[in-house]
Design goal:
Blueprint (H helix, E strand, L loop, with lengths): L9 E5 L8 E6 L6 E10 L9 E4 L8 E6 L2 E12 L3 E6 L10 E4 L3 E5 L3 E6 L5 E7 L10 E8 L15 E4 L6 E7 L3 E10 L2 E10 L4 E10 L3 E9 L11 E3 L8 E4 L2 E7 L4 E7 L5 E9 L9 E8 L9 E11 L3 H10 L21 E2 L10 E3 L12 E5 L2 E2 L3 E3 L2 E4 L8 E6 L14 E8 L3 E2 L4 E10 L5 E11 L3 E12 L3 E10 L5 E11 L2 E12 L8 E5 L9 H11 L2 E6 L16 E2 L13 E2 H13 L3 E6 L2 E3 H6 L14 E7 L2 E7 L6 H18 L3 E4 L27 H4 L3 H17 L6 E5 L5 H6 L1 H7 L4 E3 L14 H15 L5 E4 L10 H12 L3 E2 L12 H10 L1 H4 L5 E2 L2 H7 E4 L4 E2 L4 E6 L2 E10 L19 E6 L5 E9 L5 E5 L1 E4 L2 E6 L5 E9 L1
Parallel strand pairs: 34-40, 41-42, 42-45, 45-49, 49-50, 50-51, 51-52, 52-53
Antiparallel strand pairs: 1-2, 2-7, 3-6, 4-7, 5-6, 8-9, 9-10, 10-11, 12-13, 12-18, 14-15, 15-16, 16-17, 17-25, 18-24, 19-21, 20-23, 21-22, 22-25, 23-24, 26-32, 27-31, 28-29, 28-32, 30-31, 33-35, 35-38, 36-37, 36-39, 39-40, 43-44, 46-48, 47-48, 54-57, 55-59, 56-58, 57-58, 58-64, 59-63, 60-61, ...
Length: 1019
């Protein structure tokens, strides 16, 4: 995404004598950042008649349009300046005739309100809440159909009891279904403001919509007042037949299509069809309570029978605000244009360039205040750079922050200053009789930025690399010392690099830091400290892992060839994996045949897998090789999806590979006809024969040679009794091509499955011993352990397992936080002792910022499992990415196979916690024993008031005054007690332990969401 700059654009007003000289005002660009957009400026007319003046641009002498408006009882001149490039704009107010040609026109019928500008023609439907239903780009084309363009607000309370299904969706209140009144606050040939207002069940909505005749931005300033619990606000655009079924349309700035994505704000999303030459989009400015974008954009190229384009821009969560509540937010719609225009508008209009009102009160009394993005901390040494105008009398310069004076010292036109107070960001500057405005750039002596590990996950004992950028803010060359440290476990610290670096004055330098990864240490902190004259100037951290077994390290994602197949996507996807601290991912349903297509002979192929019921895709060999190579370069492992099925062409060519029903019909799992060609996949009988499974493993080894896979996830089971029958037969029998029953072929399914799986793994390991086997567990439960003990052990030995069956936490047996965590920890402990790492995703994407979205990652992590899921939502889901960073940093504790769940009675006899009943900890006490002592990990989550897992939980109140009591054994001594925290970044807090006999008491600071307490003892 193109960077979104938060810059200060200052309106400079120069003093004047009204009769002697022309008044001048304009826009000044202190940061020299490219400006593209519109500046709206209002001037108090002070009784001057319209006919007595006109506005002229100083640089080209052209007349500037304006209109006269009334606001708050004052008569104001409104002008809109178009900004392009680096130059500011200076305007002279001269006497003369100021009548202008109208650039903006509006007309009204019973059904519609029409806004007409030189750039676009827009229609608002009066009968549907003044929502937009037609848009024509006068430089492009008409959008064929707009089915939705409106504000939507949602409300709903917390689920109080089990209702047998997913939580009820919140109630939606649509602008188009409301009784909306529309009135112009003002309207003229240059700009118009339309006020829309409507009541709804819980309050009122007011949306002030601003149109102008110079550019395409339509600004919305929304005020919501409510007296019941609300969920969120949304502005939604739905545009069928926009993306084009042939696939030429796309979404900018990502230049991607399906699947749906969400992105952070501020930013923009712009849909454009180059064939039809029309576009539309939304801008989310900074400093607004907006959460994220959602979009989906698909058509025939995504193998669907319809064409769809939809945008949604969501506000932050409203459910946690006080009642009655008032909520304000702003955004802009781009009415047409091109991707280049959209990018310019997004940079220039992120804050819409809303300039302060300038009052021309008299010829010598002009007052203005400006905002800074950040003031220095108290006592922080800074450098302030002044941009001077008209020969400022420096002796008369006064600077005040919150009316407290700040000392300025002149040194060669640079002012070194130390603030005496830092409160808010408002600064007023006075110079003699006039007021001038400048920008101060706050800087430290030097700064470290952009620390990046070359690989997120390193293998042990390899040469590793990191890079960091060092910025020297001093006006002279400086020599610094950089010390790099790797900290693993709690405080195992090792200096891995130390170097001296000289950086030129006011310059920056990218520095490479080589280091040795060393032993298998799991998660670590890579810390770089910057020293000048032996004093610490700055420091920066990044997080990674060193492990020989990648599933130890991070979370797991899936790339689906329905969308992950186009060159260029791999860079975006790998970047998202890194940003979310995902250590590995799977390329799903990629092969032309799960049995015979692991090493495709052609450069391109179409997968014949279970996913053809949803999409059709063409994959190239070069694309697969390229993204795996890029993943490895970034220290991310790639798993190949495999399946115990056979593609229809294979089964027809080799009938012995199919399984059959009792009537002799092949058992097909799924199928679809695309363009007259049948794509189908069926169950195979070859999976359970050890000799054939061994050859399958050798085929996988050849696929590794071709592509470089690090592992696989076998989306099936090797046990012949685990049968999925699409005919829903009561018996699990199946038959081979000769009509022999599976029960006769494999009378001992447990032994057969374990033998076949072992043979498959052997076939791969003979040439690729580091290859990691993964599987999807149908049900890794105590019942399965009793029925299939041999297969359970083999499938969980040093493997990766997906507990897909535990996604259904809305089922009755897992419908509460407590029940779900009990099942998670219980079943995970059946696999972890054998070295397996377990993953679990969730089916329902709860709203960003919601309590459930924050708590579910803690439950998965604290139960000892990894997250399996998308990375697209990234940081827009609140701070979940920080939890995955935390999981990687302390993976030794959360994912260590030696940490075993204590039996429930022993848990409660060993640990007691004095706290609110909503602090949940009883399920998550893990113990690791060794010859020197033991470690106990007590995980804690602050639950909301409701137990049933729901979208609409109330915000949990922070827990305070917590005391943990540990009953130690008579020969034990407590070495230390530490708290492992995720926010604001992974860190430990050493807690003070008080001993009274065999009882150890520890006071725990406040817990907002979740934390872990590690107790280490020695004999």
């Amino acid at each position: 995404m193109k960077p979104i700059f938060s810059i200060t654009v200052i309106v400079l007003v120069m003093s004047y004598s009204w009769l002697a000289t022309a008044a001048e005002f304009g826009v000044y660009n202190p940061h020299s950042v490219k400006l593209n957009g519109v500046a709206s400026i209002e001037l108090n007319l002070l009784g001057i008649k319209d006919s007595e003046f006109k506005l002229i641009r100083v640089d080209n002498g052209r007349q500037v349009p304006y209109q006269i408006i009334s606001k708050n009882g004052k008569k104001l001149l409104l002008t809109v300046l178009e900004l392009k490039g680096l130059a500011g704009v200076k305007i002279q107010l001269r006497s003369g005739n100021g009548r202008q040609k109208a650039l903006l026109k509006n007309s009204s019928t019973k059904e519609s309100l029409i806004m007409d500008t030189p750039l676009y023609l827009l229609a608002l439907n009066k009968q549907q809440g003044f929502t937009m239903n037609a848009l024509t780009d006068k430089q492009g084309g008409k959008i064929p159909r707009i089915t939705q363009a409106e504000l939507i607000f949602s409300a709903g309370g917390e689920q109080q009891k089990y209702n047998g299904h997913l939580p009820k969706p919140e109630k939606l209140y649509y602008q188009s279904k409301s009784k909306v009144s529309g009135n112009f606050i003002y309207s003229g040939g240059l700009e118009a403001q339309l006020e829309l207002s409507w009541p709804f069940e819980f309050g009122t909505v007011r949306d002030v919509v601003t149109f102008n005749g110079i550019n395409r931005l339509i600004r919305h300033n929304v005020t919501l007042k409510y007296n019941k619990i609300m969920v969120q606000g949304e502005y939604r655009l739905a545009l069928p037949h926009f993306s084009s079924s042939q696939g030429e349309g796309t979404v900018f700035p990502q230049q991607e299509r399906y699947p749906e994505k969400t992105f952070n704000t501020p930013g923009y999303e712009f849909a454009y069809n180059p064939e039809k030459k029309y576009g539309i989009g939304l801008i989310a400015p900074p400093d607004q309570p907006l959460r994220n974008f959602f979009w989906e954009f698909l058509g025939k190229s995504e193998a669907v029978s319809f064409d769809k384009c939809r945008f949604s821009l969501f506000t932050k969560q409203l459910r946690y605000t006080n009642l009655p509540g008032t909520f304000n937010f702003s955004f802009a719609l781009m009415a047409g244009g091109t991707p280049a225009e959209a990018a310019d508008y997004a940079v220039a209009a992120t804050d819409f360039r809303e300039f302060k009102t300038i009052s021309l009160m008299s010829s010598k009394n002009i007052v203005q205040s400006i905002k800074f993005s950040r003031l220095p901390l108290v006592g922080e040494q800074t450098v302030g750079t002044l941009n001077l105008f008209r020969g400022m009398n420096l002796g008369a310069l006064k600077l005040a922050i919150n009316n407290i004076a700040v000392k300025l010292h002149k040194t060669n036109s640079t002012f070194n200053w130390r603030p005496q107070h830092a409160g808010n960001n408002r600064v007023v500057v006075t110079l003699g009789k006039n007021r001038f405005f400048y920008n101060i750039q706050v800087k430290t002596l030097a700064k470290l930025t952009k620390l990046r590990l070359a690989k997120l996950v390193n293998k042990p004992n390899q040469v590793a690399l990191a890079t960091v950028t060092l910025i020297n803010n001093a006006p002279v060359d400086k020599t610094f010392k950089l010390v790099s440290t790797v900290v693993s476990a709690i405080d195992n610290s090792e200096i891995v690099n130390s170097q001296t670096v000289t950086v030129s004055n006011l310059d920056s330098r990218k520095i490479t830091i080589p280091w040795n990864s060393g032993s298998d240490k799991k998660g670590f902190t890579f810390a770089v400290k910057l020293f000048y004259n032996d004093k610490l100037v700055d420091s920066i951290n990044e997080y990674g892992s060193v492990t020989a077994f990648v599933p130890d390290a991070g979370q797991y994602s899936v790339a689906n060839p329905g969308w992950f197949k186009t060159p260029g996507q791999e860079k975006v996807f790998i970047k998202k994996l890194r940003n979310n601290y995902f250590g590995f991912f799977e390329f799903y349903a990629w092969t032309p045949c799960p049995m015979t297509g692991l090493s495709p002979k052609t450069e391109q192929w179409e997968p014949h897998t279970e996913s053809q019921v949803a999409y059709r895709a063409t994959i190239s060999k070069s694309f697969v090789k390229k993204f795996i190579k890029l993943a490895h370069k970034n220290g991310i492992a790639v798993f190949a999806w495999m399946n115990g099925e056979v593609a229809l062409p294979t089964g027809l060519t080799f009938p012995d590979t199919f399984r059959y029903s009792q009537t002799g019909q092949p058992l097909l799992y799924s199928g679809r006809i695309w363009d007259g060609k049948r794509f189908a996949i069926g169950y195979t009988s070859a999976l359970y024969n050890a000799d054939k499974a061994y050859l399958w493993g050798k085929a996988m080894a050849k696929s590794i040679d071709m592509f470089g896979w690090d592992g696989c996830r076998f989306d099936w089971a090797f046990t012949p009794s685990v049968v999925g029958d699409p005919m829903r037969a009561k018996k699990s029998d199946w038959y081979n091509s000769r009509g022999v029953s599976s029960r006769k072929l494999y009378p001992a399914p447990d032994a057969a499955g374990a033998k076949a799986l072992k043979a498959f793994r052997k076939g791969v390991a003979e040439t690729h011993p580091e290859f990691i086997y993964g599987t999807n567990s149908g049900k890794f439960s105590a019942e399965m352990a009793r029925a299939l003990p041999k297969y359970k052990k083999e499938s969980s030995t040093d493997s990766w397992i997906w507990f897909e069956y535990l996604l259904g936490y809305y089922h009755k047996r897992m419908a509460t936080w407590q029940k779900w965590s009990k099942v998670l920890t219980k079943d995970s402990q059946l696999a972890r002792p054998n070295g397996a790492q377990i993953g679990l995703g969730r089916q329902r994407p709860y709203s960003a910022g919601a309590t459930s979205a924050k708590l579910i990652p803690y439950l998965i992590l604290y139960s000892g499992l990894h997250w399996i899921g998308p990375t697209d939502r990234n940081k827009s889901l609140g701070e979940n990415w920080k939890i995955w960073r935390y999981a990687m940093r302390y993976s030794k504790y959360f994912y260590g196979k030696n940490f075993k769940l204590m039996p429930v009675q022993e848990r409660l006899a060993t640990i007691a916690v004095t706290a609110s009943p909503r602090l949940f900890w009883q399920q998550w006490i893990f113990e690791k024993k060794d010859k020197n002592g033991r470690s106990l990990l007590v995980n804690m989550v602050n639950l909301p008031q409701g137990d049933y897992i729901s979208e609409r939980h109330e915000l949990p109140q922070p827990q305070k005054n917590i005391v943990l009591t540990f009953n130690k054994r008579s020969n034990e001594k407590v070495k230390r007690v530490v708290m492992l925290n995720a926010m604001p970044e992974p860190h430990t807090v050493v807690l003070k332990a008080t001993t009274a006999g065999n009882r150890i008491s520890v006071a725990i600071p406040v817990i907002k969401w979740g934390t872990s307490i590690l107790i280490e003892t020695k004999e």
